[in-house]
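Project standup — Tuesday

K.O.: blocked on the structure for the chain from last sprint. Re-posting the sequence here as requested.
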Amino acid sequence: MYEFLIKEYVDKLTEEDIKKYAKAYNIDVNDDEAKILYLYAKNYWKEFYHSEPKELLEELKEKLRPSTYNTLYKFYKDLKNKINK
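H.V.: unblocked you, prediction finished:
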């Protein structure tokens, strides 16, 4: 059920949505990071939904500022825990 909803959301996702969503959760994301997150969301959302893709997370860790990555990683883990309950 969640997979269908996530796919529908990701299909319509924009970089501006990334920025708005981050701001709503007090996550500091600059324009470059929004672009990176947009590309990862569009291309790898299934991997993030179905597992914890270590290689992708390591790539993001190198591409994002440490404070942004750490906040997003915690947010991701919290969401995964809620979905898996």
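K.O.: great, moving the ticket to review. The CA atoms of residues 45 and 70 lie 19 Å apart. The helical segments are 2-12, 15-24, 31-50, 54-63, 66-83.
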